[in-house]
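Bump. Still looking for Dipeptide ABC transporter ATP-binding protein structure tokens.
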Amino acid sequence: MPLLDGGRIVTDQHILDVHDVTKHYRKRGGGRFGLGSATVKAVDGVSLKLRKGEALGIVGESGCGKSTLTRLLTALEKPTSGQIRYRGVDVHSAKGAARTQMRRNIQMVFQDPYASLNPRKTVGSILAEPFRIHRDALPESGLRPRLEQLLEQVGLRPDHLDRYPHEFSGGQRQRIGIARGIALNPEVLICDEPVSALDVSVRAQVLNLLAELQRELSLTVVFIAHDLDVVRHFCDRIATMYLGRVVEEGDCDAVYDRTAHPYTRALLSAIPRPGFDDEPEQERIVLEGDPPSPIAPPPGCPFHTRCWMARPDCAHTVPAGHDLGEGHVSHCHFATEVADADPRAALGGSR
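Sorry for the wait, here they are.
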């Protein structure tokens, strides 16, 4: 049971196990000449394991399947195929008390603090909703003290319970959303880009709050983001998604220091650097064009149409996972070559 920096404990026990999960949608008018229907492959064969107490960051461009995956993890949607197991029990086939308990133990913080809070309800009513659904979680007499405690945990005052969402700033609203997420003392907290809609000035405050709550409550966190710099400072492991698939995953230090997939390398190059004299110059790798449509993904490696390292085999063969050691896996035919390459070598062939 290793002890991580900051006092968090991560065990070897897998609390969430995602095995070969897909989520396909039928789209009307998606066929030839706008007729018939087509299949949108939003999530296409994702497998992940989440250890108790860790923070897993999932990153990628808009439309890569990150948010769809969160809805599958929280059982808001059912996968087309594959399994998601929480403590060995299938999240989507569980019934009765087992399903209720899983919903209680897996909670979510949504991206938009302006859209995720009902403007017609007071903060107190919003925070009380989880307890109305899970009536055995708390006696009625303890409700008000618990709601006041929740607000104090997220840095707000107890008297805010009687106010409405429009009376708060974006950062304060997200704190209310976080309070709702931890109300039932969940084991797993899914955070879907919790700071992307906030001003830069308050992002660090909300991230520090989440890190503090994770330590205090021993939370296991899935953190969805497109800012890789944020993920490195908050998460233990990272998984990069592209076109509905995980293309690279591993411990943050391993992925950032020895990046083994061209797409992850391109994302990392977009992080602004201060440019100190003792640091190597890091220029941005510009990828030309948009990701292919999930309705008609390319054959072979999903990234080959934008990859500067692509070779003929990439267009025909789906790359297997290459293990670079200690759980660092890259789905690239040339993973070792990418990991050992000078980052600046990619600039001459960026697409």
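The two ends are 44 Å apart (CA to CA).

Edit: fixed formatting.
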